[in-house]
Write a structure and sequence with these properties.
Helix content is 70%, strand content 12%. It is of the alpha+beta class and 433 residues long. It has one domain (34-69, 122-279, 317-431): Outer membrane efflux proteins (OEP) (Up-down Bundle), CATH 1.20.1600. The strands form two sheets. It has a four-stranded antiparallel sheet with strand order 2-3-5-6, with no helix packed on it. A two-stranded parallel sheet has the order 1-4. Helix 9 runs antiparallel to helix 10 (396-431). It is rod-shaped and about 155 Å long.
Length: 433
């Protein structure tokens, strides 16, 4: 007896384990809205832009910072002049009488040289350009995030459309079962001679119409499933009804971050304009091998190539930006005003969207309060019609009408519930909460 009890307990545990595994597999097969959104964003080609923009910005900033390295340039040139520096005639005659051969400079001159310039102070120009490049990268990243965020709305549309079709499929299955049950009853009544063949054919035809509707719903479900699977990059065959959630009032949309990034970009532009107004200090070194060199008198006596070099410090102050600074600053101010105006426009339109979605959700919720009562009443009327038909009180067309009315009420309930959920999650999308 103890052995039997033990065996029964073991089988009971195995059965529970199998049920748990089956339940987990069923739950895994259903994909949630959040999973679809995350998968769609990860699968969307624009996701690659994140790394591309970051790497491009890093390379640009690195190149700009190389402006602090010594700037080296090599050059070579040959010239033929119409005239050259020469001794005055009296001095040349005096040198000739002294026994010196004064050849003078040649009109063809050659030089191969190297110039090195090291910036010591640039007025913040390099730092400003680096900051500008970073802000430009951040603006591109923010714009990319806005584009990626829009993918979630496309997921919402497909997800809730698929959810509604799935609900309609269940109701259509129930409708077919109900019509099939009444069809069997009429067949029995027809065989007993208590129902006409036309009554049986009416229910059969209505059953076939329901089958057609089921096939159409299946085609819609397959099409939506393929579209959602392609967008998400995962196999989406069944979707889970999302729970009712509360949404916060705070607006966390990525568009607001984009506007902030654009405003910071105008600040970076102003820094570069300020840096262009400041003087610059640098050290330089020049060296060349050629003819003539720095010693002009020696080169007049001997026509030969020589090594020459020079080092020094240079201060430059370009006042050209003064000419356009007023207009440049005015343009930046206008850009900021345009960005602020765009932000205000977006916030207003977004607020209108929030109000619309919230009101629609409340409307569907209030309508749903009577859906269950309507279905209960329609079900009672349909059952009464079935009873009346069995007793020959009403025609079969009246029963079909009541069956369709009950099914329509159930469909409306599913539509109201799905639309309410969609409005709630569209409101969630509108605020990014």
């Amino acid at each position: 007896m103890q052995v039997k009890i033990r065996t029964t307990n073991i089988m009971h545990r195995i059965l529970i384990t199998l049920l748990i595994i089956a339940a987990s597999l069923t739950a895994t097969a259903q994909v949630t809205l959040e999973q679809c959104q995350q998968a769609a964003v990860s699968n969307y080609p624009l996701i690659k832009q994140r790394d591309l923009i970051r790497l491009t910005t890093d390379y640009t900033v690195a190149n700009i910072k190389k402006g602090w390295l010594p700037q080296v340039s090599a050059s070579a040139h040959a010239t033929l002049q119409s005239d050259v520096t020469a001794w005055p005639d009296e001095m040349r005659d005096m040198l000739t009488r002294s026994g010196l051969d004064v050849k003078g400079l040649k009109k063809d001159q050659y030089r191969v040289g190297l110039d090195v310039n090291q910036t010591i102070y640039d007025g913040g120009s390099i730092a400003g350009q680096a900051a500008l490049a970073r802000e430009q990268g951040l603006v591109q990243q923010a714009q990319n995030e806005v584009n990626l965020y829009a993918v979630k709305m496309r997921v919402n549309e497909l997800y809730f459309a698929l959810l509604l079709v799935k609900e309609k499929q269940k109701l259509n299955h129930d409708l077919q079962a109900l019509l099939e049950s009444n069809e069997k009853k009429l067949e029995s009544m027809y065989r007993r001679g208590t129902a006409a063949e036309s009554d049986l054919n009416t229910v059969k035809a209505e059953h076939l119409v329901a089958v057609q509707q089921g096939l159409d719903l299946t085609a819609q479900q397959q099409a939506l499933s393929r579209m959602l699977s392609t967008l998400c990059g995962i196999d989406v065959t069944d979707v889970q009804k999302p729970p009712v959630v509360e949404t916060g009032d705070m607006n966390n949309r990525p568009e607001l971050q984009l506007y902030d990034a654009q405003l910071r970009l105008t600040d970076a532009h102003k820094q570069t304009l300020d840096a262009a107004m400041r003087p610059k200090l640098s050290l330089f070194a020049q060296g060349f091998y050629g003819y003539p060199g720095y010693n002009m008198f020696d080169d007049m006596m001997r026509h030969r190539w020589s090594l020459n070099g020079m080092i020094g410090a240079r201060i430059t102050w370009n006042i050209t930006p003064l000419y356009t600074r007023k207009h440049d600053m005015a343009k930046l101010k206008l850009q900021r005003q345009q960005i602020e105006n765009s932000r205000e426009t977006f916030v207003l339109n977004n607020r209108l969207d929030q109000i619309q979605h919230a009101d629609n959700a409340r409307r569907y919720h209030s309508v749903m309060a009577t859906d269950a009562d309507i279905i209960a009443l329609r079900s009672k009327v349909r059952k009464a019609a079935e009873s009346k038909l069995a007793h020959g009180i009403i025609a079969v067309n009246d029963l079909v009408k009541e069956i369709n009315s009950e099914n329509a009420a159930r469909v409306q309930q599913s539509i109201h519930e799905t639309e309410m959920l969609k409005e709630i999650y569209d409101l969630k999308y509108a605020t990014n909460n």
